[in-house]
Amino acid sequence: MDIYPNYIFQDVTKIDPKILKGKKLLIFDIDNTLFYSETTRSRKDIIRWFKKTHKKYPCVCYSNSFSIHKRKSILEKTLACEVYLSKYKKPSKELFQEISRRYKVAAQDIAVIGDFHFTDVLFANRNHATSILVRPIGNERKLILTFARVLENFVLFVLGFFA
Ligand SMILES: [Mg+2]
Question: How far is the CA of 30 from the centre of ligand 1 (A)?
């Protein structure tokens, strides 16, 4: 099982443009890659980067999330890009075939961009496309919150010590 990405970046805006050169289709993951997980919220810089990139490359978004049907139209409006729906899920080969046929592109001309090894990266690698892993965008906030909690507990501990 090949879950090692060809490239890793902090988020989509940091992707080296050279890597995308010549690609004929970019398949984007949605949750934690372009939007906060299970929401229709994102960062301005990410949306701006996406729109700029979409002018140069055909793009399509895909998510395994069960809530994608509900969010589809808002996400499409926000990105000005298709959110593809299928009965298949990443990393299935059938899904890859479906998308590559629909967009009439060969695997080597496709890059898959996402935050998860076992879906996004595997989806690209087992179908011979380029895999680009990005760090989940929700994580910074979670890390800060975790850090705040640890700090809080430490302060409480010290206060308790001197009480
Ligand atoms: Mg994701």
Answer: 6
